[in-house]
UniProtKB/TrEMBL annotation:
Location of the BAH domain: 5-87
Alphabetized Gene3D superfamilies for the sequence: 2.30.30.490
Organism: Hibiscus sabdariffa (roselle)
The protein's name in its UniProt record: BAH domain-containing protein
Taxonomic placement: Eukaryota, Viridiplantae, Streptophyta, Embryophyta, Tracheophyta
Pfam families hit by this protein: BAH
Alphabetized InterPro entries for the sequence: BAH_dom, BAH_sf, C5-Methyltransferase
Source organism, top-level taxon: Eukaryota
Range of residues in the leader sequence: none
């Protein structure tokens, strides 16, 4: 995957999770290089119902394919990208 040093984009991607956990979904805002020339990106995270503040009694009411956009953003290494989300 190519990236630009300081270009702004909005793209949704699947990102690697720990073994046995479903991969994460994030919206990409920026690709950049660290001072050590490592490729990184700034992401805003989506959460599944089980990761949100929905109690267990009501979790069955939420479609398993539904995700919720959070306000959480952070920087991540480029090599944790699994693939592009199409929707």
């Amino acid at each position: 995957m190519k990236y630009c040093k300081q270009g702004i984009i909005i793209q949704r991607l699947w990102l690697m999770a720990e073994d046995g956990s479903p991969d994460y979904i994030a919206r990409i805002f920026e690709f950049f290089e660290t001072v050590d020339r490592e490729p990184y990106f700034k992401a805003q995270w989506f959460y599944r119902a089980e990761d949100a503040v929905i109690n267990e009694e009501n979790a069955h009411l939420i479609d398993k394919g539904r995700v919720f956009l959070s306000d959480i953003q952070d920087d991540n290494p480029l090599n944790c990208i699994v693939f592009k989300v199409v929707w």
